[in-house]
Backbone:
């Protein structure tokens, strides 16, 4: 049971919850918060931590095992894979997904690609510096 | 598995359930959804043998209802049934005396999790605390199945979150849970199977993750389609 209440991941109600959990782990891996070989919480801990049903936690871990993202040997806790190739693919996959969504939505406006890239670059730099100011 | 097969129920001349059929598996959370007065509570009472049926049957692990049912299925009604003059601690003693499946360690664990005080009288409890005591009494029975009638209704947000966290814990693992609600939004992502009731009949039964996966719809989306059609 989680005493703190609110979920650490805001789930949307239209995508399967277990895939949202898998995605959360992929982001953690891609951003280096989870590293190769690191032990991850047990299924039960994860259910409490993310406020999900224990079945969903089980299903998410099964999916990550199938995708070779995590390994579970015998009774020892599950760990992030040490296969660098798989970890590299995760990052590419996330970038590609995010860009696909962006392109699909911006395409409707019909902006020339040079102008678009310029806007993206400027936005990105502004956000980056704001982020730094907030941290300092 | 709890199997509800074609049950019908009349109160006086009024038909409240008509040919209701669904099943609830162990290790899953099944949610009966519908607005007030569609017969959700009656279904739970029928499973507990508390509402004699006019038709259909109910089987639990393949067997019809009998007196051993009460060691196998726990029922948390939407109002507290303990006498108002009893103290919280006395309620626990009472349960221990009447049920072989009572688990005192679990009761102690829940008592501190819900921050309930054994010397408090039932009559002095707030609505939220009465709900928590009610839930504690049901959850502390080591039963295979657990039925809960509107566990989230009319209580504050923090109590609701605390109660919701029960559904993410070992307390319900491996058990079959059936709960009723008229307010799905807070708990959508916790539910495995949804049974939509309307005017005493089942309008639709579906697995929530499958609907998200195959149709990209939330439980609420499906409800809108069904109830507004």
Residues:
């Amino acid at each position: 049971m989680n005493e703190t209440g609110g979920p650490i991941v805001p789930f949307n109600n239209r995508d399967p919850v277990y895939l949202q959990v898998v995605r959360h782990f992929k982001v953690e891996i891609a951003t280096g918060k989870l590293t190769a070989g690191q032990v991850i919480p047990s299924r039960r801990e994860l259910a409490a931590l993310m406020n999900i049903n224990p079945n969903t936690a089980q299903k998410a871990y099964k999916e990550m095992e199938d995708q070779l993202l995590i390994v579970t040997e015998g009774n020892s806790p599950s760990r992030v894979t040490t296969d660098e190739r798989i970890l590299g693919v995760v990052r590419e996959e996330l970038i590609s997904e995010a860009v696909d969504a962006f392109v699909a939505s911006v395409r409707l406006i019909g902006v020339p690609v040079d102008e678009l890239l310029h806007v993206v670059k400027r936005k990105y730099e502004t956000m980056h510096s704001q982020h730094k100011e907030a941290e300092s | 598995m709890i199997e509800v097969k074609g049950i019908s129920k009349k109160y006086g001349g009024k038909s409240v359930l008509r040919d209701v059929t669904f099943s609830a598996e162990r290790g899953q959370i099944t949610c009966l959804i519908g607005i007030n007065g569609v017969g959700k509570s009656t279904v739970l009472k029928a499973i507990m043998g508390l509402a004699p049926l006019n038709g259909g049957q109910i089987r639990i692990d393949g067997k019809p209802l009998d007196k051993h049912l009460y060691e196998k299925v726990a029922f948390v009604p939407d109002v507290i049934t303990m006498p108002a003059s009893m103290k919280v601690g006395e309620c626990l003693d009472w349960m221990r005396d009447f049920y072989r499946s009572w688990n005192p360690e679990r009761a102690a664990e829940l008592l501190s999790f819900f921050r309930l005080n054994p010397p408090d009288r039932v009559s002095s409890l707030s609505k939220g605390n009465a709900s928590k005591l009610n839930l504690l009494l049901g959850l502390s029975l080591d039963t295979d199945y657990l039925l809960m009638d509107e566990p989230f209704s009319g209580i504050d947000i923090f109590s609701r979150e605390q109660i919701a966290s029960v559904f993410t814990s070992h307390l319900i693992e491996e058990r079959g849970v059936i709960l009723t609600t008229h307010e799905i939004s807070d708990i959508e992502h916790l539910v495995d199977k949804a049974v939509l009731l309307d005017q005493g009949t089942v309008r639709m039964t579906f697995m929530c993750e499958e609907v998200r996966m195959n149709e990209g719809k939330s439980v609420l989306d499906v409800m809108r389609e069904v109830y507004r059609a």
